[in-house]
Amino acid sequence: MSLVGNLEDLGLGDIFQIIFLSRRSGVLAIRGKAVEGKIYFKDGMVIAAYSLDVSKKIIRNNTQDTVFSLFIEEGNFDFELKDPNEEIKGMKPDSVFIAEHGLNPQFLAMEGSRLLDEAKSKVKTAPPPEPIPSYPKQTIPPLAEPQVTEAPQKEAETPVVKHEAIPQLKEETFSPRSIWAEAGIAEEERVEPVVSSPGLALLKSMIFELQNPHSSSEITLMILRFASEIMNRAVLFIVKRDAIEGLGQFGVALKTGDPNRRIKGIKIQTGDESIFKEAILKKMTIKEELGHGPVHEYIIKELGGEWPREIFLAPLLVSGKVAALLYGDNVPDERPIGDTESLEIFLAQAGMAMERALLERRLSMKGKE
Fold first, then answer.
1. At what angle do helices 341-368 and 216-227 cross, to 10 degrees?
2. Parallel, antiparallel, or unpaired: how do β-strands 76-81 and 2-6 relate?
3. Do 227 and 86 belong together in one domain?
4. Could you say which DSSP state residue 232 is in?
5. 266 located within any domain
6. In a domain, 187, yes or no
7. How far apart are CA 294 and CA 274, in angstroms?
8. Mean pLDDT of the chain
9. What distance in Å separates the CA atoms of residue 68 and residue 182, rounded to the nearest whole number?
């Protein structure tokens, strides 16, 4: 699972912010016209990096400078969720710079963006090249012809020349494969502009909206709004101590009755065997074909009765506990759920925003006492 896109749509500073706040571990690959490389994250912190320029030279002063060299405006990125140490172990020791202590991506994002802005301003304010001065043409008088004295000629000897085959030299051409080979990783072709992950543009804008939410209900509406970009329909369930209850929905179509009222009437027990119980216990996203069972059949019946080909179920974690569950599918279409990485990242951000909102509410109530 990976988050793919163009740096024109989502800048490196925004990507760093998302990875840091969601405490993700993985490898971020950056590819531009003049530089490319990878940045390794562990629990949201930068632990290693390397970069190469077009001359196949490894840019390697320290981890921080290596990261700054990858701050470019045009290019592609691919963030893959994985254990970064697995890839680092397989690389040449002199091709990657490893930080002894994790570096804060927020600082790197601010400083890298500042350096990029400075470089852009220098290019804009650079004076134009001075014109080459022209000088008037001067007339040069003709030189006198030199006097040549003929020397007695000797009979020339004909030299014996050995003709040897001249080796044909192959013209060297630059290939992106050599860049990756020099870094000690698998050879890859340079990727042209890629198709961004679904919801990537929305992720950038809504991350900023989550910084100052007015209420918890506003956050839940943003979650459903984001999910509508990925799936045909979704339902948000609130998780209580003993029960799971419907809270809100989009895309649910019923033959009769109000979908919102129907969803709010859904109630299942947290202890009943179901995919909901599994998601709560594992605190992980589940994306699979929905098996039959009493709870599942009840849920699908309340949603209109049409059985989905595949379902998506992700927890919303607040203070380490599952506060809500987001269910989604593509009914009435039979296509499976697509890439949900951007949605999962947003859910992690929404959980932290919900936590901040609840904390502010408690502090406000204490202030009134």
1. 170
2. antiparallel
3. no
4. S
5. yes
6. no
7. 8
8. 80
9. 21
Q: Please give the structure tokens belonging to residue 73.
A: 């405006």
Dihedrals phi, psi of 18, to nearest 5 degrees: -65, -45
160: its two tokens: 């014996």
Please state, in angstroms and rounded to a whole number, the distance separating the CA atoms of residues 12 and 105. Answer: 10
pLDDT of residue 153: 56
- Angstrom distance (rounded) from CA 53 to CA 60: 11
Which residues form the domain of 22? 2-125
Q: Return the CATH number at 342.
A: 3.30.450.40
Are both 220 and 352 inside the same structural domain? yes
pLDDT digits (tens, 9 = 90+) for 90-111: 887 767 778 777 899 889 988 9
Please check whether residues 221 and 356 belong to one and the same domain. yes
Q: Which of 105, 96, 116 is nearest to 52 (CA)?
A: 96
C-alpha closest to that of 356 among 216, 247, 226, 206: 216
Which distant-in-sequence residues (6+ apart) come within 8 Å of 222 by Cβ? Answer: 206, 209, 210, 213, 350
Count CB-CB contacts under 10 A for residue 343.
27
The two tokens of residue 150 are 């003929």
Token duo for residue 216 = 């918890």
